[in-house]
Design goal:
The structure holds two protein chains of two kinds.
Chain A lengths: L2 E8 L4 H21 L6 E6 L3 E7 L8 E9 L4 H11 L8 E3 L7 E8 L4 H14 L20 E9 L6 E2 L3 E2 L2 E4 L1 E3 L8 E3 L3 H10 L6 H18 L3 E2 L3 H8 L6 E6 L9 H11 L3 E4 L6 E9 L8 H26 L3 H4 L7 E3 L3 E2 H19 L3 H10 L7 H5 L6 H9 L4 H9 L14 H20 L13 H14 L6 H12 L4 H18 L7 H12 L5 H31 L4 H8 L7 H15 L2 H24 L15 H22 L3 H9 L1 H11 L7 H18 L11
Parallel strand pairs in A: 7-10
Antiparallel strand pairs in A: 1-3, 1-7, 2-3, 4-6, 5-6, 7-8, 9-10, 11-12, 13-15, 14-16, 15-16, 17-18
Chain B lengths: L1 H11 L10 H15 L2 E3 L13 H4 L8 E10 L15 E10 L5 H11 L9 E5 L2 E3 L4 E10 L2 E12 L2 E2 L5 E6 H9 L20 H19 L2 H22 L10 H20 L5 H22 L10
The chains are: A alpha+beta, B alpha+beta.
């Protein structure tokens, strides 16, 4: 079966777009082939800086014929109906239609329409212009006097189709004045002459001869192997960098790996700065000494050609540029060291963090306040946490970070160390950004934890307050990452934070308007009361509502009501945390229904306890006691649901002890009381395993009850009492989770 | 053929015009190359601009249907980049060599590469790369796609296919080449400090360096740009240029608004406003929020000038 070869030769395609473009080309062409009935055996797409290529092999030579039957009117139908049928079926005489016998309804006409499949080469030629015109480049452009758009000017198109054994034909089409053909060019400098190709095999081989390696994976592999070899030959080790490798492989058609050096005096600059300079600006790799793991004054560059002087001029040129770059970096670094971090802070007063969230100075002040507030909760020294929070953003104003934004935090630590800050403070300057992603470690030092939480919570509450929440795939302020960071810091450090209260207070802090000071002042006496409330055992919102209404008369009402309104936002943000935690727990392998069962309990804002509850619940449900109790609770819930619906009333409330008749009934009621008491006591002690054990003791009583006692008896009073008892089973288990949310 | 011609011209060229030893020789070589190709060689625009793109020969001529091929040196001023002559690479005043080809010819990349050969950069021994770099000028309401051109890891030129200028689609598309002359010269002369560039290619008592010509100016203008430029006057000048631009634009329209008679004088005032804004910015008297609004004001002028230009003869308006 024939193979299809396509190549689009253009001016230089941005490296970052190449892989995606190859995939898109494959998908666009093969989708259209299949839609046209042209199935194929396999397809591979490739990209170089100047070309996109696709090979589809084992394509059908022609579309299969299609036979279609069209039912027409009955024999003897009015002339109009017959004429309409002939037109629709493409027939000229009714005699061309078959007559289908039908004894019941009468005979009718059937037209058999046969569509002959067309040669694949014609079909492909017709589909290609649209592929080119609608190609989804992230950014495309026009050139010259034409209207066609492509990522950069498109110069030629190869399109051949034919079986392995024969000379393939050109798939003819034209788009934007470019006619498809079978001619391409090699390397821009080393083999610019045009040459003809037949099919994929000779295409790849001829390109290789013309100094073009088509497959990006092969280019990357050869760069990596050569770079390692060059490093090894000098007794060093390559600092591998997959992202850089992929980018460099997208900048060259014929990779030639060379090694250069720079003045060892520059090694006095922090290694990360050297690496960023050489990597970001020059797209070169750095090397290290395998024994000491320290950088050495060498670099690996990847040129796009075999130079006639063996690469001497290229190495010399790159060395000069890197020298100049490192000289700049050293100048920046030395200059940065001359200014103490705290002396940079006043500048933040003139830098807007976000239009609606004030200046960087205001933001830093909030972080300082939060970090100070939380230091005791997370076991950090208050003075150190405040100091760290003050300095943690100062490196944003240094020249090195201005030049290499990805070094933020790290440079803060270096500069803090250089000015002899406390070790914990210096580390917090770097670690408060962590975790930066799912694979990053969370900070472990209490000072870093306090600042990291303060930084992230201020971001989250801030953007929540101005209603800039993530939607769908849009999360421009990386709020999901911030929330997940908070969750991981809390859970992995086993921290206890009443989040609801903290978030609520910060919503009132984030307000920059003049009412803020008033609101805080007014709320101050109230804050004391709020602080006394335990957020885990009651719904804070309800209590606040009561407090606000009581105080509203004495205090300025509207401001207080406004402060109270933050409760709604707090609730919203908490459910965002809950969603992120669910995602995280699910990724960690916890059952999603268990997560839901725990979250269904009201007032959950202690993330660590939620995680522990889910774990304990999972363990419990793995035991026979757990499974049977769950079955019992479900049975009770089902009966209740049906009866409550039937009677249109709820059977909440305690059953009347005096009306408990059967011994199993009495035993169950007693067991529920004990289980409730024991489970609540265990939950209060945060011993969830013990709470589950207390629940487990219910199991034989529940089983016995269902075995011996009939709920739906004729005695209405007795029936109601028994239904209430069933409700008690459900209620009792709510001490640990909402069992009705558990599947199984 | 081209190679042979190059060698012939090499032989006929006096040593002190060799681009690898003479800054002015490099400029002359580029001018000659593009003149040979068919560009009109213009002289610098006689106003302060931030880049060669601001020259009406690029900004305005990039608009409209008429073919246009030009090349010129443009002294460019970036007040903020001044370093009092103490930085070996940074200058508040430097030269760009600008080439504009409309419509962009199909072999424009080859034309560019051949121009590098003329100034002594042979792609057979130097690693020339086209690295993605999309260009956007917020003040000109312009954008295009193209590359930074790298020679052995150093950016030596900008290469842009204009897609839009002054808010109007460019059709046909103009190709713009911008050579950073000091950088290129430093590279081919092999010097690390711009002020050490040999300006006139002489090695005798007549030798003049870039520093001899410009060091004092860098020092004086850095003082001016950062410390002494009269901000009160500049704020006034901005307002006046803005008002004048609007006035000339309004006065230049024909009654039926089909023709414009003063697009160029109006555009001069737009350039003026832009440079005054750059000076104010360097003096640090424009806050972040104000900055955005100043950029928008200049863009509005640029857009209105573009619209006026399209209603002139050179802009392609029907007679």
């Amino acid at each position: 079966m024939p193979d299809l070869l396509l190549e689009f030769l253009s001016e230089e395609i941005p490296a970052r777009m190449q892989a995606r473009a190859a995939d898109d080309l494959k998908k666009m062409v093969t989708d259209r082939l299949v839609a046209a009935g042209l199935v194929y055996e396999g397809a591979k797409a490739f990209a170089t800086p100047r070309r996109l290529a696709l090979s589809v092999h084992g394509v059908l030579v022609r579309q299969p014929d299609i036979k279609e039957q069209k039912k027409g009117p009955r024999v003897g139908a009015p002339e109009g109906a017959i004429a309409g049928f002939l037109k629709a079926a493409g027939l000229s005489l009714i005699g061309e239609a078959k007559v289908e016998k039908d004894a019941k309804k009468g005979d009718f006409y059937v037209a058999v329409i046969e569509k002959q499949g067309r040669p694949a080469i014609d079909v492909i030629g017709e589909m290609m212009p649209e592929v080119v015109r609608t190609f989804p480049w992230p950014k495309s452009m026009r050139w010259g006097s034409g209207r066609l758009t492509w990522v950069r000017p498109l110069h030629s198109i190869v399109a051949t189709f034919g079986p392995e054994t024969e000379e393939p034909e050109i798939v003819h089409f034209e788009v934007g004045g470019i006619k498809s053909g079978n001619e391409t060019r090699g390397h821009r400098f080393m083999a610019p002459a045009p040459f003809k190709v037949r099919r994929f095999d000779d295409y790849v081989a001829k390109l290789e001869a013309a100094k073009v390696v088509l497959d990006p994976a092969r280019r990357a592999a050869s760069i990596l192997a050569d770079a390692k070899h060059l490093a090894f030959a000098q007794g060093y080790e390559l600092v591998e960098d997959d992202v850089l490798l992929a980018e460099v492989a997208g900048l060259v058609e014929w990779p030639v790996t060379l090694i250069g050096a720079f003045d060892a005096a520059y090694l006095a600059i922090p290694e990360e700065v050297i690496r960023a300079t050489i990597r970001n600006n020059q797209k070169c790799f750095v090397l290290r000494d395998a024994a000491t793991a320290k950088l050495v004054n060498k670099f690996i560059l990847v040129a796009n050609e075999e130079a006639s002087d063996g690469g001497k001029a290229i190495i010399a040129g790159n060395e000069r540029v890197i020298r100049a770059r490192l000289s700049d970096a050293k100048f920046f670094y030395d200059a940065d060291l001359k200014t103490r971090l705290e002396d940079r802070l006043p500048k933040f007063g003139g830098i807007v963090f976000h239009d609606k969230l004030g200046t960087q100075a205001e933001r830093i002040a909030r972080i300082v306040a939060l970090a100070g507030q939380w230091a005791p909760i997370v076991g950090a020294d208050g003075a150190k946490a405040t100091r760290a929070a003050q300095l943690c953003k100062a490196d944003l104003l240094t020249d090195v970070v201005g030049e290499f934004p990805e070094l933020q935090g790290l440079m803060g630590r270096y500069y803090a160390e250089a000015q002899n800050e406390d070790e914990a403070v210096a580390h917090a300057c770097e670690d408060h950004y962590k975790p930066k992603g799912p694979d990053d470690l969370v900070p472990g030092d209490p000072v870093s934890i306090a600042v990291a939480l303060a930084d992230k919570i201020d971001t989250l509450v801030g953007f929540w307050a101005i209603d800039e929440k993530p939607t769908g795939s849009k999360d421009p302020y990386a709020l999901r990452r911030a929330a997940l960071g908070v969750i991981r810091i809390i859970v992995e450090n086993e921290l206890r934070l009443p989040l609801r209260l903290q978030l609520w207070r910060h919503f009132s802090v984030i307000r920059r308007d003049e009412n803020l000071a008033d609101a805080i002042a007014l709320l101050h006496p109230l804050n004391e009361q709020i602080l006394k409330l335990s957020a885990t055992d009651i719904e804070l919102a309800v209590k606040l509502e009561v407090l606000v209404s009581e105080k509203a008369k004495q205090l300025a009402g509207p401001v207080l009501v406004q402060a109270h309104s933050y409760l709604h936002q707090t609730h919203d943000l908490l459910s965002f945390f809950a969603d992120r935690l669910k995602v995280q727990l699910r990724e960690d392998g916890a059952r999603h229904d268990l997560v839901d069962a725990v979250f269904a309990l009201e007032g959950q804002d202690d993330l660590l306890m939620i995680v522990r509850r889910v774990a304990a619940l999972g363990n419990f449900l793995d035991t026979d006691d757990g499974k049977n109790l769950l079955a019992g609770v479900k049975r009770a819930s089902n009966i209740l649901r049906i009866e409550e619906k039937k009677d249109n009333k709820s059977y909440a409330g305690a059953p009347d002890a005096k009306r408990l008749a059967a011994p199993e009934e009495k035993a169950l009621a007693e067991a529920i009381n004990i289980a409730k008491k024991d489970a609540s006591a265990a939950v209060a002690k945060e011993n969830f395993a013990a709470a589950m054990s207390a629940m487990a003791k219910l199991r034989p009583r529940v089983d016995a009850f269902f075995e011996k006692v009939t709920v739906n008896v004729d005695d209405k009073v007795l029936r109601e009492n028994r239904l209430k008892l069933l409700n008690e089973i459900r209620e009792a288990t709510r001490a640990v989770a909402d069992f009705s949310r558990i599947e199984g | 053929m081209a190679e042979a011609n190059l060698r012939a011209s090499d032989r006929s060229r006096p040593d002190n015009l060799d681009p690898s030893r003479s800054f002015q020789g490099l400029i002359l070589a580029l001018q000659q190359y593009w003149a040979n190709w068919g560009c009109v060689i213009l002289q610098p625009y006689d106003m302060e601009v931030g880049a060669g793109t601001f020259h009406p020969a690029t900004t305005l001529r990039a608009l409209g249907p008429k073919p246009w091929n030009a090349a010129y040196v443009q002294p460019s001023r970036r007040p903020k980049d001044g370093r009092y002559g103490e930085n070996p690479n940074r200058l508040q005043h430097y030269y760009q060599f600008q080439v504009i080809l409309k419509p962009s010819p199909p072999d424009i990349q080859d034309l560019y590469l051949n121009s590098l050969k003329v100034i002594g950069i042979d792609p057979k021994i130097h690693d020339i790369r086209f690295v993605e770099d999309d260009w956007e000028s917020p003040t000109l309401g312009a954008w295009g796609l193209g590359w930074e051109c790298w020679c052995d890891g150093m950016e030596v030129s900008q290469f842009t296919y204009f897609q839009q200028v002054a808010g109007f689609e460019c059709s046909p598309v103009a190709g713009e080449l911008t050579y950073g002359l000091e950088r290129l010269a430093m590279y081919v002369q092999g010097v690390d400090n711009v002020f050490a560039l040999n300006f006139n290619g002489r090695d005798d008592e007549k030798k003049v360096t870039y520093g001899d010509v410009f060091l004092q100016a860098e020092q004086e203008y850095s003082r001016h740009n950062f410390e002494f430029a009269d901000t009160g006057m500049l704020f006034e000048q901005f307002k006046m240029a803005e008002a004048a631009c609007k006035k000339y634009l309004a006065d230049g329209w024909s009654k039926d608004r089909k023709h414009h008679l003063m697009a160029l004088p109006a555009y001069d005032q737009c350039i003026k406003a832009s440079h005054v804004f750059n000076l104010l910015d360097a003096r640090g008297v424009i806050s972040v929020t104000e900055r955005q609004s100043y950029i928008l004001r200049v863009r509005e002028l640029a857009k209105a000038c573009g619209e006026a230009w399209l209603a002139t003869e050179a802009g392609g308006a029907a007679g």
